[in-house]
Amino acid sequence: MNDTYGRIIETTKGLYHEGGLKAISMRKIAARLDLSATAIYRHFQNKEHLLIAVFEEGFKTFTRYLWDSLAGETPIERLRSAGEAYLRFALEEPLYYQVLFMVPTQHLGYEAMPETAQEELHRAFLFLVDRVRECIDEGSFREGDAETVAVAIWGHSHGLVSLYLNGHFQACECDEEFTRFFWNSLDHLLRGLTDESFVESS
Amino acid sequence: MNDTYGRIIETTKGLYHEGGLKAISMRKIAARLDLSATAIYRHFQNKEHLLIAVFEEGFKTFTRYLWDSLAGETPIERLRSAGEAYLRFALEEPLYYQVLFMVPTQHLGYEAMPETAQEELHRAFLFLVDRVRECIDEGSFREGDAETVAVAIWGHSHGLVSLYLNGHFQACECDEEFTRFFWNSLDHLLRGLTDESFVESS
DNA sequence: GTCTATAGGTGGATAGAC
DNA sequence: GTCTATCCACCTATAGAC
Question: What whole-number distance in Å separates Cα of residue A160 and Cα of residue A68?
């Protein structure tokens, strides 16, 4: 990924991180790469297609993380690995995490983009639902709606991660400390979710 | 709030909701209110001050919600009321919720703004820490670090709310359904947080 | 594949009339 | 308090030379 195509995408992520969608412009990207503003149009049809490409690269990366988590032998191990993969992705690729999970799709403001984004996000969610359903099917979790449990897990994880990435976690000085906190907190939720009447009453 | 000042702030919130920070412009606000672009400058010094005003109105509103939650008689009741206030604010003022809690402060890109935002957010967090500490002090919660427990509660709540506001909650058709889900999920987390060794091991 | 030149649009903000 | 006229900065995108 050291070609111009890859460098343009990296620069776009950087601009997003610094100033949000409003800070991304073809001219600024070009300036940072010592290119003329128009050179980018040889690599991407227009700005919309560039942003779609960033999005899709992000999802490719995220999918690789999730894919690796399927190596676990039992459903419970695979669910835990999925959580580890989600957290590792957030910490190792914070810029992608923000673009994929922290931008309201309406704010993208393009035709093709929101559909791509929604579809990909839904696919990721279904992956988690599958991990939960496996656990229910083999009896590790109580009977119930896998989607309901998956949403609670995703919500909890996303909340902690997004507060941390936005700098609202003054307690944690480093990623390792946050990782310990994340798992401690999530384990308690999982215990609550699986021990009791969560699935039925919701 | 039917004066021009209030209408400008409402319109700004609406534009943010539709297209994010990049969609907010003095000209668009003016057009929606059938004003000339420059009329707004009689009410706000410039765009930065307008955005700060939106932020501060949002925090005034949020603070009113939290304030009402202090009416509870016991620490536990007040903590629960604070959660109810947080959720009601998110559902009744979703545009403010997004502006206050879902915009990375770097993306605001002004001098005065990020400090205002960070300070106000921190004050809201300290309010939650106080509610948790009360519960610990009277013995309803185990001994331990109130900030740690507060972060877990806030993270969980924020995660669920932001997924819901971003439309990722296909299971819940209406606010009432989401409210039930929210409390069911949060109650399980609270049980886990208070029953076991969460505070010590994190 | 990269450049310059350029068209056409949107934006923030000021000056001065009413 | 609102208007029009205006300035200047920045943006996306195209055409055509190298």
Answer: 23
Helix (H, G, I), strand (E, B) or coil at B69: helix
A9 CA, C5 C1': Å apart: 27
Predicted confidence (pLDDT) per residue in A77-127, tens digit: 999 999 999 999 999 999 999 999 999 999 999 988 888 888 889 999 999
Chain A hits for B106, CB-CB cut-off 8 Å, are: 17-20
Report the alpha-carbon distance of residue A135 to residue A82 in Å, rounded: 13
Cβ–Cβ < 8 Å for A155, B163:
yes
Chain A partners of B176 at a C-beta cutoff of 8 Å? none
- Mean per-residue pLDDT for B149-172? 92
Q: Are A181 and B148 a contacting pair at CB < 8 A?
A: yes
Contact flag A107-B20 (C-beta cutoff 8 Å): yes
Alpha-carbon distance A94 to nearest alpha carbon in chain B (angstroms): 13
Mean pLDDT taken over chain B: 92
**Sequence-ordered list of residues with C-beta below 8 angstroms from that of B58, at least 6 positions apart, any chain:** B93, B96, B99, B100
CA separation for the pair B38, B27 (Å, rounded): 8
Task: Indicate the pTM of the whole model.
Answer: 0.94
Q: Which helix (H) or strand (E) holds B7?
A: helix B4-19
Report the alpha-carbon angle B188-A86-B114, nearest 5.
85
For A136-195, the DSSP string reads HHTTSS-SS-HHHHHHHHHHHHHHHHHHHHTT--TT--SHHHHHHHHHHHHHHHHHHHHH
Q: Which long-range contacts (CB under 8 A, 24 or more apart) does B71-76 make?
A: B74/B138, B74/B140, B75/B131, B75/B134, B75/B135, B75/B137, B75/B138, B75/B140, B76/B135, B76/B140
Is A62's Cβ below 8 Å from some Cβ in B? no
Q: Taking CB atoms and an 8 Å limit, are B160 and A162 in contact across chains?
A: no
| A152 and chain B in contact, CB less than 8 A | yes
| Chain A to chain B Cβ contacts (< 8 Å) | 156
For residue B175, the number of C-alpha atoms closer than 13 Å in the C-beta half-sphere is 9
Q: Which is nearest to A168 in space by CA: B85, B165, B162, B192?
A: B162
Chain B nearest-CA residue for A19: B107
What is the rounded average pLDDT of the residues B128-151? Answer: 91
Cross-chain residue pair B104–A169, CB shorter than 8 Å: no
Q: What's the confidence (pLDDT) of residue B202?
A: 47
Report whether pLDDT(A202) > 50. no
For A99, nearest residue in chain B (alpha carbons): B104
